[in-house]
């Protein structure tokens, strides 16, 4: 008997498995739409010009790398608050938001989950059905029981909003509700402002705890537009959590740049909450890394670089939308008669294409087009060169 003889093999990450299969495929026309990253029109991961310029400035005046404060770079936290809540917002003036730098959006979710678990260990967590696959695992590993609220409506190619609302209205007080602030992963379907208003009302009436995951701010309709839901929660006078990720919006995936913001009832409560978030951080990894957050703080805090970023972000957003439209047009041209307009209604990098697992498997085996068995494809991995082949293959399996 060795120490590890009872250790079971954990299941493989399904997306990583798909990537391995893709890499091993010898089909020269293969296309990987299983990924969760934005590729540019040449099929390459972009290095944003604003990032390169900020880094060039940093390299020209190299600095020693001391420890950061536990909650990260102050200018970075402030810039995050400005993006999420609006730089001139009353809530920031009142000192009612505790923000900490985090190791990506995942890190922001985990700090929030650990803090909530100490605060309210018996609370349940509700995530959308379906959701980003790490939500369930992350909150389960933080000690919570995780259930799902209805979200995707396959039959109507949209959101089962009545089901979602009923689930929220049946949830006990203090239930943590994880909500995708914009660009829902994996479906691409977002709530309307009127639907959000009803969600906010349910959260308030039932005494639920909203945890908004904002991993794609700027990828849907714009920075302020995608953050509009935050204003709706603020207007209702609620306390809530927001995780931020800059992985996609700055194309800084590997630098692990994110944050957690907690809206509190008073400046006094904010100071206490911040002190507890710092304990979570301190006991996990002590303090965050410097480089990525310094880049983001520099870009957001330098007017010329900031406008460059906003333009580059808009460029990514517009290209994704163009690919949605082009995919629908190409499928129609290939003879698909089904109404596919839902693809252009979806927001962000992903599309629930409506294809079933058997069709997705045919796409892989016959055409070298790789997507997730749920039917999720990454629209941000489409470009003018691979689109004709993707559309022809999709049309073939839809026949
Ligand atoms: N939340 C959602 C909804 C996501 O899609 C992702 C990343 N794909 C994350 C959080 C995590 O972001 P990060 O890579 O910055 O940890």
Give, in order, the helices and strands. Answer: HEHHHEHEHEEEHEHEHHEEHHHHEHEEH
Which word captures the global form? globular
What ligands does this structure carry?
Answer: 4'-deoxy-4'-aminopyridoxal-5'-phosphate
Report the count of strand segments. Answer: 13
Q: Biggest sheet, open or closed, and with what strands and sense?
A: 7 strands, mixed
Distance between the termini: 56 Å
Give the rounded overall mean pLDDT: 97
Could you estimate the helical fraction of the residues in percent? 40-55%
Polypeptide structure, described:
By secondary structure, this protein is of the alpha/beta class. The protein has 16 helices and 13 strands. It has helices at residues 14-24, 49-60, 74-85, 90-93, 104-119, 133-141, 161-169, 193-206, 223-226, 228-235, 267-284, 291-301, 303-333, 342-345, 357-367, 387-398; strands spanning 31-32, 97-103, 124-129, 145-150, 152-153, 158-159, 176-180, 209-214, 240-245, 257-263, 350-352, 369-370, 376-378. It has a seven-stranded mixed β-sheet. α5 (104-119) packs parallel to α6. It is globular, with a radius of gyration of 21 Å. It starts with 13 loop residues before the first helix and ends with a helix. The structure holds 4'-deoxy-4'-aminopyridoxal-5'-phosphate. The site of 4'-deoxy-4'-aminopyridoxal-5'-phosphate has 12 residues, from α5.
């Amino acid at each position: 008997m060795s120490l590890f003889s009872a250790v079971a093999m954990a299941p493989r990450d399904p997306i990583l498995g798909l990537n391995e299969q893709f890499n091993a495929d010898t089909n020269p026309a293969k296309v990987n739409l299983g990924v969760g990253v934005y590729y540019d029109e040449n099929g390459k991961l972009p290095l944003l010009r604003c990032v390169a310029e900020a880094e060039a400035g940093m390299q020209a005046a190299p600095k020693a790398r001391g420890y950061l404060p536990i909650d990260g770079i102050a200018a970075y936290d402030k810039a995050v608050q400005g993006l999420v809540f609006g730089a001139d917002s009353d809530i920031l003036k009142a000192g009612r938001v505790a923000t900490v730098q985090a190791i990506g959006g995942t890190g922001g979710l985990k700090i929030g989950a650990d803090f909530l678990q100490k605060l309210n260990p018996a609370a349940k967590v509700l995530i959308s059905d379906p959701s980003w696959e790490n939500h369930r695992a992350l909150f389960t590993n933080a000690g919570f029981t995780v259930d799902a609220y209805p979200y995707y409506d396959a039959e109507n190619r949209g959101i089962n909003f009545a089901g979602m609302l009923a689930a929220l209205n049946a949830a006990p007080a203090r239930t943590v509700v994880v909500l995708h602030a914009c660009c829902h992963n994996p479906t691409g379907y977002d709530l309307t402002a009127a639907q959000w208003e009803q969600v906010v009302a349910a959260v308030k009436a039932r005494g639920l705890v909203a945890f908004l995951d904002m991993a794609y701010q700027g990828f849907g309709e714009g920075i302020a537009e995608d953050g509009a839901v935050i204003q709706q929660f603020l207007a209702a006078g609620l306390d809530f959590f927001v995780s931020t990720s800059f992985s996609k919006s700055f194309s800084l995936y590997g630098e692990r740049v994110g944050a957690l913001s907690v809206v509190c009832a008073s400046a006094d409560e904010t100071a206490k909450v911040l002190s507890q978030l710092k304990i979570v951080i301190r006991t996990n990894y002590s303090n965050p890394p410097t480089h990525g957050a310094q880049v983001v703080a520099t870009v957001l805090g330098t007017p010329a670089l900031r406008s460059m970023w906003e333009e580059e972000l808009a460029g990514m957003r517009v290209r994704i939308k163009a690919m949605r439209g082009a995919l629908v047009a190409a499928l129609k041209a290939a003879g698909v008669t089904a109404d596919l307009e839902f693809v252009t209604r979806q927001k962000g990098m992903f599309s629930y294409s409506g294809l079933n697992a058997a069709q997705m498997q045919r796409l892989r085996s016959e055409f070298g087009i790789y997507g997730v068995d749920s039917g999720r494809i990454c629209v941000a991995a489409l470009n003018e060169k691979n689109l004709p082949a993707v559309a022809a293959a999709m049309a073939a399996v839809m026949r």
